[in-house]
Amino acid sequence: MLLKLAWRNVWRHPGRSGIIVAAVAIGLFASAFLMAFYQGLIEQRIASVVRHETSHVQMHHPDYIADQDPVFRIPQADSLVQMLEQRPHVRSVAPRMAFPGMLQSPTGSTGLRINGVDPDREDATTGLRSALKEGDWFSAERRHGILISAKVARQLKVKLRGKVVVMAQGPGGDIVSGAFRVIGIYGTINGPRDDANAYITRSDAAEMLGLGDEVHEIAVLLDHSEAVGPEVAALRAALPGLLVRGWSELSPEMRILVGTFDQMMFVLLGIIFLALAFGLVNTMLMAVLERTREIGMLMAVGMGRARIFGMVVLETLLVVMAGVPVGALLSAIAIGWGANKGINLRTWGETATQFGYDPHVFPSMKLYHALVILAMVVAISLLSAIYPAIRALRLNAAEAIRK
Fold this sequence. Notes:
Blueprint: H1 2-10, H2 14-54, E1 57-60, H3 77-85, E2 90-105, E3 108-117, H4 119-126, E4 132-135, E5 145-149, H5 150-156, E6 163-169, E7 175-186, H6 191-195, E8 197-201, H7 202-209, E9 217-222, H8 228-238, E10 243-246, H9 247-250, H10 252-290, H11 292-300, H12 305-341, E11 343-344, H13 349-354, E12 360-361, H14 367-393, H15 397-402
Parallel strand pairs: 3-8, 5-7
Antiparallel strand pairs: 1-9, 1-10, 2-3, 2-6, 2-9, 4-7, 6-7, 11-12
Helix pairs in contact: 1-12, 2-10, 2-12, 2-14, 10-14, 12-14
């Protein structure tokens, strides 16, 4: 009886109820799409950090991080790389000679990190070759080549095939240098990182620094992210003399971003649903005040206060639940389209790359987040019904009938 009565009361004023249904649908759609958009943005950023920057695991000499002195090296790197490549979850391994240096041209100079890499292994681990915008990749026939970003090229006023000099501190503390030719201009979605890194071959770096098969850094790409924890623990036990860290330790800003994502989303969702709650309270309170005489008559014929309270709560739930399927359908369509086609933020593309984010975003919705949004909608509808229901309970039957 209460359900039938509540349903009829909801549609006594189709226009007013329709506005609330539309508000619920729009609020649900906005909440779901916003959460899916940011989830996709974060997932793409994590994938980019792992694939193009840190890999899943990195190894260094324990003192290298505090002071990137070329003297802090990993010995017998080739044997270690071969051992790592045999591990079951390892997809690729990239040994690097990485040291701070100065890049000079006849018209300028800039400081950055010089990365001496094995070209094939580096490309398999970070996909660096696909980031080439101009020029050619490393080849055995062309020695002393260097890859730099477009911004560094503009700063130094050099073009493809132009010559630059790399200067750095050698293992013995003396200054070493080498002449290199710009063979390629590269660029990823992380512009600041590109401008802080230049790439040469590992053999050229070893020749300049006077080293053998030693390296400063070994990056390991795994077949899936779930293997990072166990792999880091196993490598730390097998290689106690090296500093072994996973991607979340290598990129603390990403760890913080992932850790605060839910809190940030709950704040945004709370703002959206708070605005919805005000509309619900106002509508239901108006419905109660308009039916003062009717509610008084129901009390007079024996309807208890609990049923009056339940009737108002049911009316609120029904009008909210009428909007939920519409909002869910709109969300599913929009998120599905975005996940398939992507959302290209061309207007903010340059700004996004300055912070390392891909301007082409693919929204992603987790089941957990969808359930959280649905639970928040139900909770808001119940809370919004409390005050109008209390106002209904405060009515005096005799006085209400006379109004």
